[in-house]
Specification:
The complex is a heterodimer of chains A (about 725) and B (about 270).
Chain A (H helix, E strand, L loop, with lengths): L1 H11 L6 H17 L2 H29 L6 E6 L2 H21 L15 E5 L9 H6 L5 E13 L2 E10 L4 H28 L23 H25 L1 H5 L3 H5 L5 H33 L3 H5 L6 H27 L4 H21 L17 H12 L4 H25 L3 H5 L4 H6 L11 H24 L5 H26 L4 H4 L10 H10 L1 H13 L7 H15 L3 H31 L2 H17 E2 L2 E2 L4 H18 L3 H20 L4 H4 L10 H21 L4 H10 L2
Chain B lengths: L1 H9 L5 E14 L2 E14 L3 E5 L6 H8 L7 E6 L2 E2 L4 H7 E5 L10 H11 L4 H15 L14 H13 L5 E5 L7 H16 L3 E6 L2 H7 L2 E6 L2 E6 L1 H8 L4 H9 L7 H4 L1
Parallel strand pairs in B: 3-8, 3-9, 6-7, 7-8
Antiparallel strand pairs in B: 1-2, 1-4, 4-5, 9-10
Helix pairs in contact in B: 4-5, 5-6, 6-7
Classes of the chains: A mainly alpha (about 725), B alpha/beta (about 270).
């Protein structure tokens, strides 16, 4: 409505400035304000330029310490000086033999013949000395007792029995023993070879080896696991200052009042600020990625960190898109928090807990067992962090990613519309009363429709709840079927009807107008019933079509569950089935999507835009199925949503859409439960049988008649409809 | 916008621009409702400067905020240029220019950018805005610092930018909220000249202040607010006739009751 008033103002004043240009100028001003400020530029440029090289050097340091220590050092304890010098000679000659036997290896210099530094620990004369004790207490890595024998290695070089004192569970001790053993074996081999050759026979070592070092593909280093967190945290840090500056800063510098005096809705002013904050955040993200790429390139760590392909352009693009989703969410939340603040100080105080709340889930992604699946896909912040990690590990799958993105954008929308309610309000402006308390205070006045902020907020709450509820329902599959039906009905009613109705009661919204439960003339009903009866073949074909182009989602267990479900249907009275799975969801979902949500969206949007937005939300909700996701249901449901939205708009009431939805669901259920081969109708994904062409033709004709009837029957009511259109300009 | 100006300048002084009808506003507080503005009715005409006077807390700012559509009235109605604020608060705002002593400027922008921004906010086209800014630059003497960051401007220069900003859309109504607060003699004189210019241009002007001596020099008609109620209204001569007192200060002292602790401004 505000937008409409804006445009009307512009037109009545004889000025033809486009709203887009106006919005662009608003955004440009916010960008200038924030980008000319040195404090923004510092976080934007200096921070990443300093941080990543530092992190890189740290990583280098750790990597050198752990992975490729060039010369290991072993401390070996012996009982006498004589034994030590014998062992030293033995290792020396063995080492030469090894170098001779082994080919120079490919890759780095880490090969079996690499020399280690050895420190021999020998007791002073007469001192009490116990090899076992010395190695156990860690003074030496390895203890060796040499008992000389009369066997000979070479001239004046006696053989011996060697006993190792190796420390249990100590890699260093094992390495040291391995090092010595290898050289003993080599010495033995050399002695044998020499003996054979001494007897006049030809002899060469039959087996020679070489080593090529290979990097593992799915190596997740600790640093790599931390990288998304570092990247996201650094990125959102960029948005913190602009968010405070553009909201609480306006109030502190006394520019807010003149801004609010502009004939422009708060939503549009806030939107300009949001885009500015988002831009700065994304610039920070880009700077961070560039600084990271430069560091990685300079320190030659591409393959260590990102595998064989290194830091490719496609990886950067994917990283940036995750950053975009996260930044959208975070910028909206930042603005929500800072819009309620009356000063810089207050805003900063409010933001500290927010930052902490971001870091805490950040630790979750350090746990390798946590994947982006199930309920984690709808937990804010956690879902995006997991998504970023799986993106880097290249294990990310489409459907959970889509749910994570959809829910995150929904939360962002809710935060933003709440922020628009708070921004520049009298409480914030005059500082007379607490903004937040006001916000949660029950309004005194009765209002006709919910605001867009309320609509989007309820949507944002409903989405994860619906997701969890459907998952919960899938878990109780073992129980009695009629109990399941009851639980499902209860959940549907409490979520899609209960939540909006409670909200409307609390906000004193008349629930007849709030959910547009208006009376409709009898003449429209034939059209509605015809559409309700004939839409299903097309929806069915659309699902099949989506599956044909590759949207398959149900796995074997899920299909089995569905088949069991269908068997169970037969034992339940048809009336109960139709009521609890057909009519009830139809009525409740319509109450929310076409009643509550559509009315609230209409406050800020044109009818067509509001219908489209509510339909897309409806489509996204239907992707969620039994705790998993069925993306093939998205498009058909969206189209169904468009249809129902159109009907609601034409009839200026949600009741016809409720009836239409109920008839549609019930028809599907009746056909699916009576004919096994149409089970697809109810759940999708079972079979891919196309309907006979005659059916499709007949339904198309009936559908056409239904549409025309509805259009004509609602045409006589156009007096009011035209009025609305003209007020939109 | 062009034709609006023509109507204004060609019509008589009696063209009613602003009308408040039984305007009332309550605020909730710890001890129940506070009535900030109580049943205030008044009218202002084109080319008239109306002084809305009263001590701190009399309800001046609340009235202004309702005039701007920033605050919905609890009851009563505001009408500007024939449009009711409850019908279309955004449209009302496009009729009004707001000057406030406390108003700040965007410190990282130049005066030119600020004026352009507000011109766009008032839905003016590029060329209209450019033309209008040129006029205002000449009128307010902004040319020497039009391209400098406002953070580097002196108080007087900032004040002139602020006055220009309020007029950028050439509104038929200008509201001045404590326009001389914190200004020296020269700064105050700029405001007086500004108000004279507005009167000459046929604007309806409302000045809210508690500087009574200043108001007496500036305004054509006065409304005396106390505790949210309009106690007296009229020209200086009418007020003198109603109360038998010679000056605004004395009239106010009578309203407040002499035993009250008076704000220093009123005493002076």
């Amino acid at each position: 409505m505000n937008e409409q008033t804006d445009r009307r103002n512009a037109e009545q004043n004889g000025l033809r400035i486009s709203l887009w240009r106006q919005q662009w100028v608003f955004t440009w001003k916010e960008l200038c304000e924030t980008l000319r400020d040195r404090r923004t530029t510092v976080t934007l440029i200096v921070m990443p330029v300093l941080l990543y090289p530092l992190l890189g050097i740290m990583f280098r340091f750790v990597a050198v310490g752990e992975v490729s220590k060039q010369t290991p050092e072993y401390r070996i304890a012996l009982e006498t000086e004589q034994e030590a010098s014998w062992l030293s000679s033995l290792i020396q000659s063995g080492h030469e033999m090894l170098q001779h036997a082994s080919q120079p290896s490919a890759g780095n210099g880490k090969d079996s013949a690499a020399e280690a530094k050895i420190q021999f620990l020998v007791p002073n004369d007469g001192a009490e000395f116990d090899l076992e004790e010395t190695t156990a207490e860690g003074t030496a890595d390895l203890g060796i007792r040499v008992t000389f024998s009369d066997r000979q290695i070479g001239e004046g070089f006696p053989g011996a029995d060697v006993e190792f004192f190796e420390v249990e569970n100590s890699p260093l001790s094992h390495d040291a023993a391995h090092y010595v053993r290898q050289r003993m074996i080599a010495t033995n081999l050399m002695t044998a070879t020499n003996t054979i050759r001494g007897s006049g026979q030809q002899f060469d070592l039959p087996v020679r080896d070489s080593t090529r070092w290979v990097k593992p593909l799915n190596q997740t280093s600790a640093i790599l696991g931390l990288l998304p967190l570092v990247l996201l945290l650094m990125t959102v840090t960029g948005g913190v200052y602009p968010a405070i500056d553009l909201t609480a800063g306006e109030r502190e510098r006394d520019t807010l009042e003149t801004l609010m005096a502009l004939p422009v809705s708060r939503v549009r002013l806030l939107m300009a600020k949001f885009i500015a904050v988002l831009t700065v955040t994304m610039l920070t993200g880009l700077m961070n990625i560039l600084a990271m790429a430069a560091t990685v390139y300079a320190l030659q760590m591409e393959t260590t960190l990102f595998g064989e392909s290194g830091l490719s352009i496609s990886l950067i693009v994917r990283l940036l898109s995750v950053l975009l989703v996260f930044s959208t969410f975070y910028s909206a939340v930042l603005l929500l928090v800072t819009s309620s603040a009356r000063s810089f100080k207050e805003a900063q105080a409010l933001l500290i807990p927010l930052m902490l709340m971001t870091i805490a889930p950040g630790l979750v992604i350090m746990l390798p067992d946590w994947r982006l699946e199930g309920w984690l896909t709808v937990v804010p912040v956690v879902n995006i962090l997991l998504m970023a990690r799986e993106l880097l590990e290249e294990t990310l799958t489409t459907v959970p990613a889509m749910i994570a993105i959809a829910s995150t954008l929904l939360y962002a929308g809710a935060a933003l519309s709440l922020a628009a309610r708070l921004f520049g309000t009298d409480a914030v402006l005059t500082g007379s009363r607490a903004g937040w308390r006001d916000f949660f205070r029950r309004p005194v006045e009765v209002s006709a429709v919910p605001s867009s902020a309320v609509g989007i907020s309820v949507l944002a709450i409903l989405f994860p709840l619906h997701f969890l509820a459907s998952g919960f329902l899938a878990r109780v599959s073992g129980t009695d079927f009629s109990l399941r039906l009851m639980i499902s009905s209860l959940l549907t009613v409490s979520l899609f009807a209960g939540l909006p109705v409670l909200m409307m009661r609390w906000l004193r919204i008349s629930w007849k107008s709030g959910a547009s439960l208006n009376r409709v003339p009898i003449r429209i009903w034939p059209g509605i019933v015809l559409i309700g009866l004939s839409a299903w073949p097309w929806i069915y074909e659309m699902i099949i079509g989506m599956q044909t182009i590759g949207f398959h989602s149900l796995n074997k267990t899920q299909i089995n569950q569905v088949q069991e479900l269908l068997k169970a249907w037969r034992d339940v009275p048809v009336a109960l089935l139709v009521f609890s799975l057909g009519i009830l969801p139809g009525v409740c979902e319509e109450l929310f999507f076409r009643g509550f949500l559509l009315s609230s969206l209409r406050v800020e949007m044109k009818a067509a835009a509001a219908v489209v937005v509510s339909a897309v939300c409806f489509g996204i909700f239907h992707v969620v199925l039994a705790g998993g996701a069925a993306p093939e249901r998205c498009l058909p449901s969206t189209i169904m949503g468009l249809l129902l939205g159109w009907v609601t708009w034409r009839c200026r009431s949600v009741i016809p859409a409720m009836v239409l939805h109920g008839i549609h669901n019930s028809t599907l259920l009746l056909i699916a439960s009576s004919h096994q081969k149409f089970a697809n109708l109810a759940v999708g994904g079972l079979q891919q049988t196309h309907l006979p062409a005659t059916w499709l033709t007949i339904s198309a004709v009936i559908l056409g008649v239904g549409f025309t009837w509805t259009a004509v029957a609602t045409r006589t009511r156009t007096g009011s409809r035209i009025l609305i259109q003209s007020s939109q300009g | 916008m062009e034709d609006r100006r023509i109507t204004l300048s060609s019509s008589s002084q009696q063209l009613q621009v602003i009308s408040l009808k039984k305007l009332t506003r309550h605020f909730p507080s710890e001890r129940g409702l506070i009535t900030a503005v109580d049943n205030v009715s008044m009218r202002t005409f084109a080319g008239e400067v109306y002084g809305l006077l009263g001590p701190n807390g009399a309800g001046k700012t609340t009235t202004l905020r309702m005039l701007l559509g920033l605050l919905p009235p609890t009851s009563g109605e505001v009408e500007i240029m024939g449009t009711r604020v409850s019908d279309d608060p955004l449209r009302i705002r496009s009729f009004v220019g707001l000057v406030s002593a406390s108003a700040g400027l965007y410190q990282w922008l130049t005066p030119l950018e600020i004026l352009k921004y507000f011109a766009t906010g008032y839905a003016m086209t590029k060329s209209e805005a450019a033309h209008r800014i040129e006029e205002l630059t000449a009128l307010m003497g902004l040319s020497s610092f039009l391209h400098r960051r406002t953070a580097t401007l002196s108080t007087g220069q900032k004040q002139r930018v602020n006055l220009a900003r309020a007029l950028v859309h050439d509104p038929p109504v200008v509201l001045l909220d404590e326009p001389t607060r914190g200004l020296d003699v020269v700064g105050s004189q700029v405001v007086f000249d500004f108000v004279a210019t507005l009167r000459g241009a046929g604007k309806a002007v409302i000045v809210c202040t508690h500087q009574l001596d200043e108001a007496q020099r500036l305004c054509d008609r006065f409304g005396l607010l106390h505790r949210g109620r309009l106690r007296h209204e009229g020209t200086m001569a009418e007020l003198q006739q109603q109360t038998g007192l010679p000056s605004l200060v004395e009239i106010f002292l009578q309203i407040l009751g002499r035993s009250n602790v008076l704000p220093s401004e009123v005493r002076s």
